[in-house]
Amino acid sequence: MRKPFVAGNWKMNRTVEQATLLVADMLPGLQTVSSVDRVLCPPFTSLMVVSGMLAGTEIGLGAQNMYWEEQGAYTGEVSPLMIKEFCQYVILGHSERRKYYGETDEGVNWKLKAAFAHNLIPIVCIGETLEENEDGRTADVVQRQVLKGLEGINKTNAEAMVVAYEPVWAIGTGRSASPEAANEIIGSIVRKNLAAIFGEDIAAKIRILYGGSVKSSNAKNFFVQSEIDGALVGGASLKAAEFVKISEAAVDN
Ligand code: PEP
User: Fold this and answer.
1) Ligand 1 atom nearest residue 233's Cα
2) Which CATH number characterizes residue 219's domain?
3) Which residues line the pocket of ligand 1, CB cutoff 6 A?
4) Phi, psi of 193 (to 5 degrees)
């Protein structure tokens, strides 16, 4: 019922020249996986060139962050108006932004509203840290991130958004969550809270991804889980063949 969704978060990797080569390398393979929504999220500096390369394909383009104001004296920030010149998607609330740049649930909420106001589809990231996990606080943390991050969002917008459950301890560590445990958290905490806010029908339509050390060798184990609709992929999205294989693994689960 929910179309599978695979997004590649390149983080702060690849110059424009390298991005061009990487996209050229993965494009033929990626284009064959049309039953999956595929999205590339390169750094800001490559958005223009990659959007040119993706023109005429069904592959989407996303930014990795944005500010909530449209313009003004905000040195170093990039606005929704600038993002939407090239992108259909924007990653918001990634754990690296929460950790290194002090992003809060409230800030994520402002960005989310700005994204919707500009017809950008947000990929909203949530997930507990290792310490929170070990303290048995996963459910509380994830619930808080959902309730505060999505406060005041209307149902129509909610239906279009994508949520990524990314346990922080699994990101970039090579230590992925167990697919069954991720499925349980997504079903019994994330989707359950989405249902509490937006109703069962809307919650059943929202795509929820798993993220954290997904690679071609483990992707299918996540995609066969009933609550997991795809993946937000970091490191493995920088390898053309890997990212294509992960997208292929999302077909028919
Ligand atoms: C991410 O950056 O969102 C991510 C999941 O990274 P990795 O796949 O490298 O763990």
Assistant:
1) 8
2) 3.20.20.70
3) 9, 11, 166, 171-172, 211-214, 232-236
4) -70, -35
